[in-house]
Design goal:
mainly alpha, 40% helix, DNA-binding, 0% strand, homodimer, 136 residues, MYB transcription factor (chains A, B)
Chain lengths: 136, 136
DNA sequence: CACTAGGGTTAGGGTTCT
DNA sequence: TAGAACCCTAACCCTAGT
């Protein structure tokens, strides 16, 4: 099948956040077509963006675990999205990822990453891109 | 408490195999709701089916050579155990299910596909033929 | 017809129990 | 230590509504 499962890379997440910063949540198509961060999301559909944002919003929610919690808690967009558009524009997708492999294998960087738990790579990337992380 | 650990019976395993033969792997919900073998799996969730299939696939995997390793080798029924539809039909005495949808039970779902989604026929064929590597 | 929102399902890593 | 059964949830699908 096409893709066994394409995990989101930190670059893509950053691009999505930048897109939401600029257009606001719900403007998935516009985000995807934006010339700034769009290139980072060529392998993602507008629906993918929507789904990912939903997942991010959920996890950003302070939730212990449905394992021992009730949990009707739910969704709501940004936790602490204080990043400005200027910062978003500062993102240079081409600087962090090869422009060559647009399609067949966009999962490049973290495709074979299996590490668990918090990885500092995310934080580093966020820092490099000038974005802030939604959850501590 | 909620889950005393319910071991899978041979009947359930047979029903699962029959379901995979019919719908292809990955169509857990469809398998579970099938009027023919579904009744055998009423106490199993679609996720349970998925998990069980995974376990079966793993154990069916050859583990002789210690030199071969590296790939996930996703799904595919055991090469040695080729339960055919006939066997599948033989497994369930409950085949006398509700007369409700007795008819279009055979090829219903896969017959009127819009052209999207994976052709499970291929996968079944590969499985039966013992081909490997669902995805390169 | 294209897009979005939201519910539903699957895939795969992780955990628990035996 | 290994394997089976079950949990968690990101990623993906389906469909109604606009």
């Amino acid at each position: 099948m096409g893709a066994p499962k394409q995990k989101w890379t930190p670059e893509e997440e950053a691009a999505l956040r930048a897109g939401v910063e600029k257009y606001g949540p719900g403007k998935w198509r516009a985000i995807q077509k934006d010339s700034k961060f769009g290139p980072c999301l060529t392998s993602r559909s507008n629906v993918d963006l929507k789904d990912k944002w939903r997942n991010m919003s959920v996890s950003a929610n302070g939730l212990g675990s449905s394992r021992e919690r009730g949990k009707p808690l739910a969704l709501m967009p940004p936790p602490g999205m204080l990043t400005l558009m200027d910062d978003a524009l500062a993102i240079d997708p081409l600087a962090t990822m090869a422009p060559a492999d647009v399609k067949g294998d966009g999962a490049d960087i973290s495709s074979d990453r299996k590490s668990l738990g918090p990885r500092y790579d995310d934080m580093v990337l966020e820092a490099v891109l000038g974005l802030k992380e939604p959850y501590g």
